[in-house]
Amino acid sequence: MERLLHMIDYPQLYSLSIVFSEPKTLLNYLTGDTILIRLLAKQITHFYLTTEFNPIVLFESDKLPLFALILSLGKCLTGFTFVPCIRDASEDLVFNRPSTICVSSTLTNLNINVSSLDDCLYILDGRFHCLSSLIIDIEIIRPNLSIIDTTKEIPKLKYLSITSISRISYYHELVPLFHRIPNLEQLILFLFVKRIKSTYRWNPFE
After folding, report:
1. Alpha-carbon distance 83 to 48, whole Å?
2. How many other C-beta atoms are found inside a 10 Å radius of the C-beta of residue 127?
3. Distance in angstroms (rounded) separating the CA atoms of residues 42 and 28
């Protein structure tokens, strides 16, 4: 890819899609003065990144996770699709970092695969205040295990899609989230809810 992008200038290039199968290859592109870093910093507004490995293996625990690193490099990003094909809900949270580190003032559209509901709540804790569209696939929905600010309203979010292929019984964990989105226009939920004996009737709009 480096050789291809160096062959000619692409001053109108604003959208870039890349699939990486090897962690070392991706790490090389994100280290030093590479063409990918320069494009992200100066002109790419829509970035589509797929990794065929767990991105947590890329960096040591004291380094920025891959998602946060891309946001720090993408000064012009308004749309970001991040699809790690391999996820492990037992791993440390990808977004378990202070909101001052993993943040973007330009991102309006995010399409992402995450490990847990905690990751989703971190995304919606106010660090992406311009976010208007979120499409998120959650590996596992379980009780909230982290201390996350779940009180802030998300006034600019208008489109929300949440999917999870794992069977869940903790769907009530999602209810407070919907109360924080006063201007929501489109909501898509694709969840496998495990029925349990309960008198609780779930209505996210109540």
Report:
1. 8
2. 22
3. 19
135 forms beta bridges with 111, 161
Rounded percentage of the chain residues whose pLDDT exceeds 90: 33
- Calculate the alpha carbon distances from 1 to 4, 14, 27 in Å: 5, 16, 14
Nearest residue to 199 via CA among 172, 161, 162: 172
Report which of 108, 112, 34, 99 is spatially closest to residue 73, judged by C-alpha positions: 34
Q: What is the pLDDT of residue 92?
A: 46
Nearest residue to 44 via CA among 68, 19, 7, 73 = 73
SS3 readout for 71-123: HHHCCCCCEEEEEECCCCCCCCCCCCCCCCCCCCCCCCEEEEEEEEHHHHHHH
Per-residue pLDDT tens digits for 152-166: 889 999 999 999 887
* Mean pLDDT (whole number) for 19-40: 87
Instruction: Give the pair of three-digit tokens for residue 73.
Output: 């490099």
